Amino acid sequence: MKPLKFSHLTLFIFFLVMLPDPGTAHDYREALSKAILFFEGQRSGYLPDDQRMKWRGHSGLSDGWDYNTDLTGGYYDAGDNVKFGFPMAFTATMLAWSVVEFGDEMPRQELWNCLVAIRWATDYLLKTVSQPDRIFVQVGDPSSDHNCWERPEDMDTDRTVYAIDAPNPASDVAGETAAALAASSMAFRSSDPGYSETLLRNAIKAFQYADNYRGAYTDNDHVREGACPYYCNFGGYQDELLWGAAWLRRATGDDDFLNYLQFNAKAFGAEENINEFGWENKHAGLKVLVSKEVVEESMVSLQSYRESAESFICTLVPESPASQIQYTPGGLIYRPGGSNLQHSTSLSFLQLVYANYLSRSSQTLTCGTLSDITPATLRRIAKRQVDYILGDNPMGLSYMVGYGDHYPQRIHHRGSSLPSVKDHPQFIACKEGSVYFNSSNPNPNLLVGALVGGPEEDDEYEDDRANFRKSEPTTYINAPFVGVLAYFAAHPDP
């Protein structure tokens, strides 16, 4: 079955019909709290006394030993036990952007919890750039890891360290790491100025590596064997260079980064109509981020970024002549490839950010013949995606674990699906976990706040941990959703 496509008129009618019932109410503050809590279930390293996800234990405590360095900490990216630096850095960037853009509207305790979640990632990312002319990009051999169904606390698979040394390129991972550290420096600026300065100093160092040694990190044969096919660079590294520069411009105000964005816009594809945003492709997010200076501060030299940003935003407006988004019959943004909710959460985040830019400057959006699209309209479109995820969908299912009365019980996640080390302290070997993977029983440990991959084009969802495309949570699905929920927790009726 091919994804549904609609005419512009049909889309407009569809959009009106699919708006949430005004009587439908979600507790966005509860969802926000749980979306942040999820990250504690993904922690690697030595867990602190205030760990709230009590079924988890310490893990990966020898990470980095073969390089005689400390690479403990950070996050497992999904339902496995590997630490992939590329999506982890993107996760940190999006959590930090959530604080930068929406932190003032977060409840005080959730802002604190979000900063803790960011720091768990950035403390690790600082370790990855701690040695001169070297960046650590991954810990854990995915082949041996994926051959086991094993708790992170028990893992005895190879904890291979993947490092890249100059002059070998790593522009994508280093550029994203620069973005993560720069964005996080802004998030911590008021609460921890010293840590903020450390993050910014290392962000500049990471960007220098990215720019000096241009190329994809998977150009390295050894790294490619470990990162692919999971987190290969498919779309080029140039977007990460611009993305890193954009965040450094935002964090520092330095005109050198402004000049970098201006000079390289065309050569690096920033003027092309690439309407993707996620761990591997930063183009749409880059355009929205940079356009802030144009929308709010009339920085004419960056006008091409604003034009591209608005072209992208128009594709998200169902009644716009430029609409290009595919939807499920129930109204969820759909793109082929699995883990579909990553598109819904990240694109909704960008809509809300751009709506804020327009709102603060008292402007509206024009999409071809459709003019005066207000920030409120963009927010309503984003809210429809949020409400679908939280349960307003044909399945009547919340795709956030632990939110609502009906949510996935058999997610594709090792730690969640195996008995907790607190309840079953005996070692469970690699293949001994298979009986739990193959079981039809619900997972014994609730990974509260986890967003699963979600349904595909027909709105159907089978609660089956073997179907990882639908049932596996990832940090980069949750991270942008934190900012989205922060907005709606403060403004439930946009």
From TrEMBL:
Domain of life of the organism encoding this protein: Eukaryota
Domain Glycoside hydrolase family per the UniProt entry, residue ranges: 28-485
The keyword Cytoplasm appears for this protein: no
Protein name per Swiss-Prot or TrEMBL: Endoglucanase
Similarity annotation: Belongs to the glycosyl hydrolase 9 (cellulase E) family.
Enzyme Commission code(s) on record: 3.2.1.4
Matches recorded under Gene3D superfamilies: 1.50.10.10
Catalysed reactions listed for this entry: Endohydrolysis of (1->4)-beta-D-glucosidic linkages in cellulose, lichenin and cereal beta-D-glucans
Keyword Hydrolase: yes
GO biological process terms on file: cellulose catabolic process
Catalytic residues identified in the record: H412, D463, E472
